Amino acid sequence: MDQKELLTRGIEEIYTKTELEKWLKEDKKLKIYYGVDPSGSIIHLGHAVILRKLRDLQKLGHKIIFLIGDFTGTIGDPTDRTAVRQPLTREQVLENAKSYREQASKFIDFEGSNKAEIKYNSEWLDKLNFKEIIELSANFTVQQLLQRDMFEKRIADSKPIHLHEFLYPLMQGYDAVSLEADVQIGGTDQTFNMLAGRQLSKQLKNKTNVVISCPLLEGNDGRKMSKSYNNYMGINDEPFDMFGKAMAINDDLIIKYFILATDVPVGQIKEYEKDLELGVNPRDIKAKLAFEIVKEMHSEIAAGKAAEEFDKVFKEKGKPTDIPEFKIEGKRKLVDVLVEAKIVSSKTEVRRLIEQGGVKVDDTVIKDIDYEIEPNGQIVQIGKRRFLKVI
């Protein structure tokens, strides 16, 4: 990848590009970090926009730090929140983070001579005393913090803003200082927090810190991809489910997904864009996108099989060939079975799906949230793409 594409594809803004270009021209080896608060256990394609950029930078010899916010995750980032976020315990945060390394390793290398490093911000944030927090707070004004969009909206709606939410940018900014990072990278929703780190690095260490903000990827409902909205595509989703989710995105997102969620060359993406402008059926281009996403996250064989299964289910109104099986003994509540089989994440979600008519057993819509299923090979369909055989 040439430097022009490196600094444009998958990047919204660089604060400042002049500084970064100078460092790259000088062949300076940079320390670059990406911080994630483990509010859930899944890394999705929205996170992967940043992970792809980290992969490209790591290949150039730069030091990558994957920072897990085990301290900040217990506080809760107020970004994009219209109400205060429910705090998590340290145990919940660490449990969520268990599989992060395995998921992130699809993009960045945690082995070898230039291996990426995992750090936890409790290492330094746990040690701050009250006097030090007051001193750090003196680097920011209340007016600065009130400029955040979500705070302005809450004030307009007469909703409370808690003091700990004001302190969140301070904590994230202190991460950059403690890591002595040259570069911070994150989504555009984190720009305010990252710029706080840039400011603190300059004021406390007289160190220049570059901020790279990456575009947010929308989910299949057009909103920002988020676990909270349940509109995400997990990078470890099963191939068939992943293919189906890609086919469900809005047509106007096809090119954006090619740019941000695949490694398809820019020249080829422009051809697809031209095809769409000339009136080619968006579904045909979207099928190429879905194939590419599954191929990159799994394999070409898995992508081909997922495409065949998708056509079978949606064109021919059939069922997938390889339906996962789950063993039970005797009658069990369907709600419990679907959660234990990890087909649906929570009982609350199962009940919601049943109430909305989104669950079938042997093609019959289930309307009773207390429905009991027997282990006789019945096939449960959840939504359009998820299937389970109960044996």
- Low-pLDDT regions: 80-84
Range of helix content: 40-55%
Please name the fourth-level CATH homologous superfamily of the largest domain: HUPs
List how many beta strands DSSP finds: 13
Indicate the CATH architecture of the largest domain. 3-Layer(aba) Sandwich
The overall pLDDT, averaged over residues, is 86
Strand-residue fraction? 5-15%
Determine the number of helices (DSSP H or I, runs of at least 4 residues). 19
Radius of gyration, taken over Cα atoms and rounded to an integer in Å: 23 Å
Written description of the protein model:
- The chain has 391 residues and is α/β, with parallel strands linked by helices.
- It has three domains: 212 residues, HUPs (Rossmann fold, 3-Layer(aba) Sandwich), CATH 3.40.50.620; 76 residues, Tyrosyl-Transfer RNA Synthetase; 66 residues, Structural Genomics Hypothetical 15.5 Kd Protein In mrcA-pckA Intergenic Region, Chain A, CATH 3.10.290.
- The chain has 19 helices and 13 strands.
- The relative contact order is 0.10.
- About 1% of the residues have low confidence.
